[in-house]
Structure formats: structure tokens, C-alpha cells
What does this fold into?
Amino acid sequence: MCGTRTRTAVTPPTAHTPPQTHDHFTAARLRFNANLLAVAVSSMMSAGISTSVLAEEPPAAENKGPALEEVTVTARRREENAQEVPIALKVMDAEYLEKQNIVELESLATAVPAVTISNTGTSSNAPIVAVRGQRPTDTTLSLDQSIPIYFNEVVMTPSQGTNLAFYDLSNIQVLKGPQGTLFGRNTTGGALLITPAAPTLEQEGYVQIKAGNYNLWGLEGAFNMPVSDNLQFRVAGFTTKRDGYQDVVSDNDLKGEELWDEDSQGLRIGMNLDFDNFSNLTMLAYDENDMLSRAPVISGYAPIQLGGLIEAAYNQNGEMDAALARQKNRSAHDVEIDLLGRETVENFFASNTTQFEISDSLSIKNIFGYRTVETTRTVDADGTAFPIFSNGISDYGAEVTRDPEGAEVIDAEQFSNEFQLLGSTDKIEWITGLYWYKMNASQDGLTQVFSGNIPTPAPGIFLPAFIYQASPVGDVNNEAYGIFGEATYHFDEEWALTLGLRQSWDERSVTVKNQKQAPPTPPLEFNLVTDPLECAVKDKNGNTEPDCARTESETFSSPTGRIVVSYTPDDSTLIYGSVSTGYRSGGFNLRAVDNETLKPFDEETVVTYEIGHKAEWDSVRTAVAAYVQKYDDIQKTVALFTGSNFETSTINAASATIQGFEADVMWAVTNDLVLTLGYAYTDASYDKWIAEVRDPDTNTMVEVDASDDDFGFTPKNTATVSASYTLPTSAELGEMTLSGSVYWQDEMVNFAIPSEFEVTVTDDALREVAYESINVKSYAVANLRFDWRNMMNSDFDSALTVSNVNDKEYVIGGFNQIDSLGLVESAYGPPRTIIGSLRYNF
It folds into this structure.
């Protein structure tokens, strides 16, 4: 191997997280949190200045660039070289995250092959993580995610509020394939592990300021304070403000507003107690964000929607057609809206990790987690300046709405605890554990599905229409238990066998409280004040629930396991084969109103067969894996016809086979030049999928064979290439490094069911428009960064980062309503950003 090898400890997560109470943001509260952060950062700066006065002169910069370093991971709950772990994984340390300008979870979308991070198009704070084609189709409170997100070994549910700002981190790890025999929460697709920097024995820290286009400015800092050899503290915080990435170009009073901005801040405190055979790490964190909601971009329209209301109200003279044409002829970051929405998020997180070494070969570990998340959201969700679809209600008759009523409000609280017993002998390393998790959450809010004037047979006579509903509204209570264990037996120095087993139990309960608009008299002439909502929830006999609340519960359980055979012919090579099974709990549909939509959906399962090879060839490091997944009872959110209404429900809709190949290569060409390549091939196909879609001629649901449809948001080929070159400079000048990367993916289908267009779109020309609207062309995104460390032999670092150098407009999310409103909406990634930063290390 080229260069000196150093060990970099990396720690992944385990337990779980909660959410809770709601409270609207107030100016006073924001000022309080900003002041709190300012005090913390100023204390770091003053401490840093006094420290630097006593510190020795920094060592002279050497003309020596990066060499391959040993990366230590804890993916199997013990410290190991990543190259010796028989699991496909990707590790990104703090320096990598910084160089790639990965500042939040959504930024990972263009960083890791075979991993996509998307959203629904109407929120930036509920990302959907997919690995190897496994991607949930919804973000409701009652639906588990395929790829859970862990923070400091605690799983974070629900997905709302998980688009966290990345600051003062140790690393991020992406594990691919089913998890559960080592992790507290069972999963089918993998796990995303975020590890914050923990307190250490060294008194040090940093303060960093940054500024960029879109009027971005930010302040970040951390201070590590060892009180003694047994007690250490670490405090970190940040604040960021930025103008919006989207410009409103509507020909109305909202023109000139900037959407998808940022006003966020966070504070994290860590305390570590460490004695001879005992350690206890407590982590507390708070973050918040307040922004004008991003708007989806209309990418398709077909006049087939139920009732023909949009066509009658807004396309009599081709207005909708013109709106779609305007959007296609301008930047995806220029949008038209008529309702100005706002989104707020508050997260509080706490974890406590206790470890006790009973002997040199036996130890116990306990991980307690707690989380609350509170979100509010109003958003114009149709991508036009017409009041068609929104979270929150338009001011009826007004051209624009600035402060809509009926915000979606989500409150969630989560507790979890995981107890582990770890041991080893000369031949065996093992772990066993018990796991408990509980989440209580609620959701409320109004959804507008149409507002407009409907023409009548009488010339020039129109009737006002205003259709809205309260959905999804209800409470969710999830509780899970698990017992797990895994052991690795070493036959000799070359061969090893790993066996893992888990039993999971999930108790799911949902109380639905959905309401709909009362039928007006006379028809269509009504408003929000005079025509209140009525209960939409029916009891088992089909009668309206008197208190408009119906509770259903169910228990799901499944065993899962893992078998691995690994062969290590020498110190630099690992060959392995594994079979693992995964399970994602069943549950209920929070949007349900009756027996049909309240049917529980079953658990989905996966069996993964994988072979892999990891090796080091002097200055080259490689890791390749090939896999086949048999994916059954796939959970999908689909439209259902209940006799008088069209509703959505989650059902077990399909089975599939996903197979692929992945490769990661790192080459230290010289001590100053390092090249990396990552590639993933993902071939996902349905074995069987019989979907039900609406026949617009009969207003009934008919079956369609969707088995030949593509997986949504699953490009077959993705790749990343990067280079880092350290310039030859003198010690007095400091170290200068130029880095660049390119992410590429080929074409894909976003989120629709293409086969449904054969039934729902009878016009050939319109069908072609519908097909075009769901296809995402291949694209590439490039990034550049220049780092100047130890500037002029000082404690200052500076950097200039350009993300999305080519200013590519690329799709990262959206939703399909072609069957109901006739609309297809897309969400795009950020435009080109240029950020300069100055950092003082002490």
C-alpha cells in the first residue's frame, strides 16, 4: 500500500428515535435559539483563542498529498477494517463530505451509486432513501421506510424532519442489503448511519464562516473540552440562511417570491464519561428550519381527471395546456403558483450509550434513544397558478393566497432501547441483543383538491366549486420488539462462517379521523365557512362513525437471518458469499375511511444472495459485489374505488427480482494524486404486478398487468468518478488541494405506472404526453473544490466549492396524479451553488 496507514475510527448507529408536540414558530423563539447558538459559538471562539496562544507552532506543511488510509467501521458492532467486513458498504468521512459539499441528507443523492434520495416534490424535509431499487412509495406515518436512517446509533422515525443538516460529523456509512441480526431495527434494503463527532481527550475545536450565491451565509463551530481523563464535553452548532432556489414567475401578486429558501440552526452537546472498564456517552441535539415551501414542477397534463373539473374550469381556452408549455420552455427553477406555502421543522434528539467491560472477552452495551419531531406545512402542489391542489386552503375567489388555513401538522414522539451482550473467544466473535421501540404520532390538516368556476349550459353562467377534505388525519401507534444475535466462527486464519438470526414483532395501531366536504345545496355553490366538513369514516357496517374515529390494530412478526462464508487467502484479500433475509412490517393506511381501505397490508420480505471481493493491491483498493434479491409482497400506495369515492391505500401489490453489480476503486497514483471510481448496475424487474386503475369511461377500477413496468427512481447504471490532487507547495505557504467529481446516471422512470396509461389515457397523442412526462433522461452533475489548509503556516483553512458546476436540472422526486387530477409533478435538485469558507482551528 502506498503511503502511511492510519486508523480512522468510524461508528454506526443502532437504536431508534421519537417525535412529538407541535408549536408554531415565533419570532421570539427563533431569536432565542439564534442567541443561544451565538453564545455557544462565541464561547468556542474565545476558548479557541486562548488555547492557540499556548499551543505550539503548527508543523510545517509537507509536499505530501493523500495516500490510502485504513478505514475502520463498526458495521458488525466491533471495530474492523472496512476491507475485512463481508458486507457491501460505503463510508464517507468528514473530509469527504466537506469536499463534496454534502451539507444535508438530500445532498447524498449524487454521491453514492445504487443509492437514490428523492422526495414527494412538495417537501424538502421528508426524504425517501432507496438502495438497490428498494424505495417506499409514500411517507405516511403508518409506513416504515425501506432504508432507515440512524443518528448516533438511534433510528429516526418518521421520515419527516430527517433531511438533517450535516455538521461536525465523524462519518456517514451506507450499508446495503437486509439488516437486523446486528441492528436494533429490522430492514429489507439496508441502513444509512450518521455518526456525529464525539468528545475526545484533546482540547480543540474550530469556527467556520461561509458565504455564497443565493445570498448564502453561515456560521458553524465546535469546541471539545476535556475536563479530566474521565470526563469530556463537546459542543457544536450552526446557523445558515439562504435565499430560495425557486423563483415565482406567475403573472400575479406572488411574482418575485423566492421558494425553497433556508433559515436553519442547530445545537448539539455531547458528554462522555470514561473509566477503566466503563463508558457513558450522552448526546443532545436540537435543530429547526423555517422556509417557504418548494413547489413541484408540472411535467404532464392529461384532461382525464375524475369529473372533468380542471378541464372545464381551466382549459376551456387552453389555459392548462399553455401553463404546461410555458414550464417546459423555461428553467425548472422558475415556477408558477397561486398559494404561498410555508414549511417548518423542529427536531429534538437524545441518546445515551453505556458500555461496560465485564472481562477482556465479554462486555455489555445499552443504547437508549429519544426523539421528537414537529412539522407544519402548506404548499401549492399542482405546479400552476390555478387553485387545483394544495396542502392548505386557498382564499376562495382571491387570485393568490399568502397565509392559507389548514396547514398539515405532524407531531411524533419516539422511544427506543437496545441491550447488547458481546463476547469473543479464540475462535468465535458473537453478539446478542434485545430491542424495544415505540412511536406515537398524529397528523392533521386540510387538503384542497379543486377550486374554480364551472361553466353551465347557460352562456356566460358559471357556478363556483370548492372541494376540500381533511386527510390524512389520525393517530398512529407503533411498537416493536426484537431479539437478535450473530456469531462468526473462524475455522482457521483463512475461513470463517457467520450465522445470524432475528425474531421481530411489530404491533401496529391506527385511528383514522378523516373528513370530507359536506355535499352542498345547491350543488357547487358553497364556501369553507358555510359548508363545513363531515365525517368520512365508516364503521364495519358502513355507517358513519359518530365520533369520526375508528381504530384498528394488528400484530406482525417474522424471523430473519443471515449466513456468510468468508475466505481470506492473505492479509489484503477478502472473498465472501452471503444469504440474508429481510422483513418490513405491515400496517394500516392513515388515509383510510372504510372497510376496504382499512384492510391491513402485510409485511414485505426479501431474500438476498450476494458474493463479494475486497482487496488491496499496493496503491489500489477495490471492493466489488454482485447480488440477486427476491422481493415479495411489495408495499405500494395505489388508488382504490370504494363505490362512491376514489381513495388511496397501501397494499401488497407485487413481487420482483432485483439483481446487480457494484464496484468501488481507489487508486493512489502518487502521494499527491488520488483517483476514485464507483459504479453500480441495477436491474430491477417485476415478476408479477396486477394493478388496478380507473377506467375513465365507466368510473370503475379495472385490472392492468403492470409486470413489464420499470421500477420508479431506479436507473440501471450509475457512476461516480473523482480526483484529488495536492499541489507542490512550500511549508510556509500551506497545503493546497484541488478536487473534482462527476456523478452520472442513465435514464429512468420516475414514479408513475406506465401501463395505466393504456387504460386511463385513450387519446394516442395524450398518451405520448403522459409517457414523456414520467421519463427522466440521463444526466451528469459535476463538482469542484479548492482547499488551502494551514494558510501561510497558520491555523486558518479556506475553501471554494462549486456544486453542480454544469448547472444541470435533474429530477430527484415528484408524484403522479394522472389518474385523478390528470397531473404529473416533478421535483428538481439544487442549481449551481458557489460557496467560499474560512475556518479557524484551535
